């Protein structure tokens, strides 16, 4: 739209949205002609729930849904990812603060709220069907581009059965607020003790291990296995009602499924949308998957299937 030309576009988002900085109003304009219900209406509704529960998220300042945009609070340029990459700070202390935010999120009981059109929006369940369909993106995009048509068909049949079996082994119910992309690039640094959460439009009610897996096994931020374990154990220390073995199985399963999905999405971004920059993250996504699969016998069959078809990745 022509009025957007006077604002500075903020690059780097993988979705169909476009972001523009309005320095005069200290605001961000979110423009979304495609998938605008999710990217505008749902985004604001989820933010309202977070704000209601004393979690920093962008407030709505203005909206023109007919013209495909909303105007929201601007939290600046600095993400927690950028802070951590500077290596001048105690990264574990920052992670502890993030876990404390996650614990607040997981206490949220609100599952519906009125959106800016004065209609009720109810957060959907992150059911097994959604989880399965997301994981299938790995085979639909990555495997389809790596194997012959016949071998892809054989792989797909076995892969789908393995994923269904893993999902059936999840222990914790879908009853927790889940951001679904909870990682340090979606947390904005406001002050040393105040972090704001963005990119919230995909939130669902799901398994409490999912957001922790997103944070610990973040494909964008390379950390040691010792550091990952330290964050995981800190979460457990703050949630002593959790059965650690069952929770660890859920964490491992959801981490593997999430990173398989991410490989599929990054391949799709490259092949379909000509967004090539995400391809460079795929090798680390594989490292994370292999690390979790080798730790847990639940993945023996999936590990064998991938090794059989991608011997250079798992050797």
SSE order and pairing:
Blueprint lengths: L7 E3 L7 E5 L4 E5 L4 H17 L7 E5 L4 E5 L6 H7 L4 H15 L6 E3 L5 E3 L5 H15 L6 H20 L7 E3 L8 E5 L2 E4 L6 E3 L3 H7 L8 H13 L6 H28 L10 H14 L4 H10 L6
Antiparallel strand pairs: 1-2, 2-3, 3-5, 4-5, 6-7, 8-11, 9-10
Provide an overview of this structure.
The protein has 315 residues and is of the alpha+beta class. It has a single domain, classed as Alpha-Beta Complex (Aminoglycoside 3'-phosphotransferase, Chain: A, domain 2), CATH 3.90.1200.10. The chain contains ten helices and eleven strands. It has helices spanning 36-52, 80-86, 91-105, 128-142, 149-168, 210-216, 225-237, 244-271, 282-295, 300-309, and strands at 8-10, 18-22, 27-31, 60-64, 69-73, 112-114, 120-122, 176-178, 187-191, 194-197, 204-206. The strands form four sheets. Strands 1-2-3-5-4 form a five-stranded antiparallel beta sheet, covered by helices on one side. Strand 2 and strand 3 (27-31) form a beta hairpin. Helix 5 runs antiparallel to helix 10. The longest helix is centred in the C-terminal third of the chain and has 28 residues, at 244-271. It is globular, with a radius of gyration of 20 Å. The chain starts with 7 loop residues before the first strand and ends in a 6-residue tail after the last helix. 37% of the residues are buried.
